[in-house]
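Why predict the complex rather than its parts? Because the way molecules touch one another can change local conformation, and only a joint prediction can capture that. The input here totals 605 residues.
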Amino acid sequence: MEIITAILAGILFATAIYNMLQKQLLRIVIGTALLSHGAHIFIFTMGRLKTGQPPILIDGIESYTDPLPQALILTSIVISFGVTSLLLVLAYRSTQENGTDNMEQLRGNENE
Amino acid sequence: MSNLAILPIIIPLIAAIVLIFFNKRVHISRVLAKLFSIISLGTAGYITWYVLEHGSVILETGDWIAPYGIVLVMDGLAAILVLTTNVITTACAFYAPHAGLERRERFYFYPFFFFLITGVSGAFITGDLFNLFVFFEVLLMASYGLIVLGGEKVQLRESLKYLLINLFSSMLFVTTVAFLYAVVGTVNMAQIAERVQEVEQQGIITTIGILLFFVFATKAALFPLYYWLPKSYIVPNPVISALFGALLTKVGIYSILRVFSLIFVHRTDLTHEMFIWIAGLSMIFGVIGALSTSNIKLIIAYNIIPAIGFILLGIGVLNDSGISGSIYYLVNDMIIKTALFLLVGIISYVAGTSDLRKMGGLIHYYPSLGWLLFLSAAVLAGLPPFSGFIGKLLLLKGAFEQGEIAIVIIGLLTSLLILYSIVKIFINGFWGDKETMGNIEKKPIKGLLTPVFALLALAVLLGVGAELFYPSIESIAAYLLDPEIYIDSVLKE
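Output of the joint prediction:
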């Protein structure tokens, strides 16, 4: 099970990075969203995948699910959700103001 | 007394929330912002005194015993950095009303300002690696708000890149924490440090360490990951640039200092040796950038990079004088960078341009501004007896003790070029005939100069009164070099 999710995380990372290297702004935004999904699945995998075990630590219980990765992912999901929505608004506004969503044209050298 | 540790996070947070309600009443906001920053400064001062006198204050949040809950560790290093942060933000709070923020003050400038301080203080204090990520996000969110405030064309363009690079490095941070969690099974920094020694495959630990270094190096703008910094730092208002230049990159370098003096200290021949070279390259490339441009804001923004390089050098050599030099230089640089950003803000305000080629003869109109700039150039470049000198002396002494002669020479040459890059502003902007820029109208700058003057006075005091501060810095360095003290104080074994 761990192997499958690890490969899935890898595919998500690869797709994300491919998208982030594009010139179109919307593709980059999608890339960042995929990147955060990849990271979350990865954290999940790193906590070992077990089903049907209680998330508690008492003497006498041999096998238990680690509750910490869930807490970490939850925090991370909230953060990346917020950042992605901000990024979408910013990308929209920037496209409107600058008249382009092509990163090649958003370079801007007039300040040098 | 352990609740003391959380006060530098709580006070700015309350200030930010209160100020949201007064966003349309600029006058009340200004008074409240000054008041809150002074309260926060006073608290930070008391905490620093308490910590240096009685040792670290550790708060186990929610009464969860370490390592199960999140711990806040207010040790000497965290305390002096929190104090310096509060000094800077107080100066900025007094500068902001005169800074020409106009409508921005009504559009939640002050709440963002205090959220930023919340994040920065939190990142300094926390003793938990994942919590560090969370506080990074808090300060980054506030900085996204600040950098785009005003919504100009160029701001939107640059803030987009700023956001993307930070988002990417944050995700890399989370992934690295996951790796580390898989290997050592904890995110509490003290426990990580304890368990890292027992891991059989030291290779994976070193890999994780280097990954983590890349994350922090992106935030701290080290070579070769500094390319995003200069342009995005010059687009917002000077007071915001000052906050960014003084605090954000310093949080990154602080994290490197913390992590690589506490956790990843077992393969120093690999990691720390690499730091020394990255430090040297950062110095060279940063100062070349500063010399290549005639935009005064860009000159100061590029000067952040060699400063970070100097601090990294101390971490790389990892001995007594190196680490004390890093801490001294860190504090000095936070203060002097704020002063410089605020100064070039004033210069571009009075000259109406930030292009050096269009300036000249300002000394006839604003003599005090010119001499303050000259003084800050001396402090930044590290001329004796100013504070930059003490920091650099310790750093280079540390490098010399390790036999890294090449880096000492690079450091000395870079200092000279840094001095030249700032003096260039002085020569081109202030010297020359009175009529170079036509007949300019004299603008009132007293309100803007006072906070800068206070910061510079403090920077000079740090240098002249080094005898007074050095013993505390030295004891903090000794504390950092012995990770066992940190581990024992957190885990109480």
